[in-house]
Amino acid sequence: MTWNDFIQEFNDKFYNRMAMKAQQNEFNNIKQGTMSVTEAVRKFDQLARLCPHLVPTEDERVRRMLDMFRPEIAVVIDSGEKPPTTVAECVKRVLRAEYRLAQAKQERAKFFEEKKKEKSQSKQNQGNQLNNQGNRSNPIGNHFNQNHNKRKGNFNGNKNQKSHPQKKNIT
């Protein structure tokens, strides 16, 4: 009896078929999601040990592992000069890609935070300039502001009085 035969017989005798199906489904649908690469690889290894018939070769194991990772990481790995051929090489590349993507994300966040500060300071400076313009002594501007709401003409409430002076006839 081979080791694989023993494992198969042992599993048939001592493992619940429904639990094994659930583990197989979990393994077939495993995705990295919010897990780190290290956590995802650990989970993948656990499920691969429980379902060895799903990853009989190193190539199949690497293929399934690459399918598990988030698209932005898998793209970096797939776009290399040659795809990884071992699990160790795959994990090494994926860890490097995760690190570089995290660095790029931090740099972008820092860049946008600086832009946000610049925009905020620019708005604050514009507001200060507007306030300063209103407080400056500008004789023309102040004259306009002081007389802006005054009506022209002579209005003193007397209806009989004409607002325009009459011309006197000199004869």
UniProtKB/TrEMBL annotation:
Residues 122-138 have a biased composition (Low complexity). Residues 112-171 are annotated as: Disordered. Residues 2-66 form the Retrotransposon gag domain. It comes from the Eukaryota. Residues 161-171 have a biased composition (Basic residues). InterPro entries: Retrotrans_gag_dom. Residues 112-121 have a biased composition (Basic and acidic residues). This is Retrotransposon gag domain-containing protein. It comes from Ficus carica (Common fig).
